[in-house]
């Protein structure tokens, strides 16, 4: 479990708000949905303790209100990119060992 | 997106729109900072802010949230704003909709109240005028009808231009006014018995009351006490009027309390309100002032202010409509008055009506102005609160963004340093690459040598450390071992000393110290006695009897001659059977021998004699243990004196006894091995010694050899008493193969 950093939480707030406003401007979200989702975000996000919970929360949010999908995709893609990067580094290390590069 | 102007409530400009908080600009995330996505994902996720397509209608609440976002409020603030329940109208349309929501029922209520008042006023005026003109309203004559028509048309503005059926109208009017009155609480409280009667009778009673009571309106407006007194022909006293006023004030207080407690739960000091009510102020005004005052004290006045603004705006609208309506009527009257052909009565009626309407309009205008003043006050409160909110928000924002800036600066500084370092590293790398390969190789070799030297140095140091550590460990181990040895030696010394003391004191060798059933070593006589007590308890209870014999005392009960008196011996001989054909004494001797041989301790315990023995042992109690111990020692000395073992019991019991008194037996010259061998010999010869009674065995061991000569009498006594065993005393003295004749 990766502890949830304040910066990460702030980033979630930023992106969720941006997504909400974009949806409002585009008419994809009513003011009632806006109120409900905003309350849900405010009450839920403070209870999150780690990164995995945040991603799950975003997924749940996306299932309730589709305009928040982009935020979930963002966070998920960062995870995937990080995993890819780690794998790449691991492969590079192995290659270095195999070739014994000085 | 440009921010729309805030809607103005109550027809006045809100100060909120002028509040422009100054805050640090936050740059929204730029598209290139984001991870790339597929077109499908982007389409599903929606557009970014500012990319709103045309033709989309956004309601005021959503627009407000969008405005907050574009004003660079923090995301938390935007979300809080978005999550807030919508109680404030944001646009003129919302205000209108909200007002109409309250206005429609209010107008309906007002209309009903107006109609009721007009009904009452018309009815009162018609009745009064009819009484003045001597018209009997209950007598329907043509003259009466004509006069009533005239009166009605003059009094009721609703009938002025209508060709109404006035008699029917009057009947309906009377019905409405009196029915309303009879259904009022005032009437039902005053005349509960009449209220139970049919409607006609109720109406008649109400009409009578109406005719008799000069201040009927007082009754209708709730001055019950005064009306009751008047109805009873009494004048209202000062005290009763005060009491009525007190009731009224209390009612108002309760209402204020209810209203305020529902908001805050705070107690309210109502002295001021009471004073104002006594001075004749309007109840609603007092309530509003109190509510506002307390709300302001709590610092949460703006929800209340908003509600008041909405409510008062609705009232203002209603008043304006009424004023406009009155003005239209007055204009109509003016037009009619300017015309010709009016009768004087008609003209007078129209002028009266016009005067009334003008007066009413003046009153309504005054009310509306008061309302607008109150609205202004509420708006000021509202704006003040919003200003306060804005100030708080601004402070929080400044704080948050200030920290964010400071953090950003720090991060920027670190990043700059990192950039510089990276540049240096890149430069070094570039220089390194540009050097000739041979130079680099030579440098690398030097570096390796240096590393090797360092390595050896490190290894040497490490080895020295290891040796030092090992030496220290060995020293510690030796020290600990020495300590353990010393402790062990000291412990052995203590044990030896204790053993010597015990040997000197009790003559007990530790190596033979008895172990009780729990494996605990017994070290003194008292403990031995306790252990023997354990042995003699429980199902082995009878053993106590035989152990009692070991005490050396005379016990007549174990003598069969004493147990069975001469008169019973014939029965015993018969029961035992096969006692030979000798004299009765001989047969009795055989029977006794068999009895000893076949004595089943458990069965014996059930006999009268056995139980008697048991009781005897129980009565002796703990004294028995002491006696036993003493007897044991005595038996030991007896054995020593006679050169035989101290004890003999059944094989199993013997082993147990031997275990507990091994030292004593050894002292008596009896070795366990010898006894064991004897037991084996007996088995070889077909005698299960474990079945022998204790006394039988005992009789072999405790009697001197010369006294232990056994005369074999039974058919099974095939062998002599001379044993072939080489086991010294025991073998020579005690090798029974047959039932024995015992003399005790």
From TrEMBL, chain A:
Protein name per the record: Uncharacterized protein
Organism: Candidatus Roizmanbacteria bacterium RIFCSPLOWO2_02_FULL_36_11
Species lineage: Bacteria, Candidatus Roizmaniibacteriota
TrEMBL record, chain B:
Keywords: Coiled coil
Residue span of region Disordered: 1-21, 427-447, 710-744
Ranges of Low complexity composition bias in the record: 710-733
Residue runs in coiled coils: 347-374
Designated name of the protein: Uncharacterized protein
Organism expressing this protein natively: Candidatus Roizmanbacteria bacterium RIFCSPLOWO2_02_FULL_36_11
Organism lineage: Bacteria, Candidatus Roizmaniibacteriota
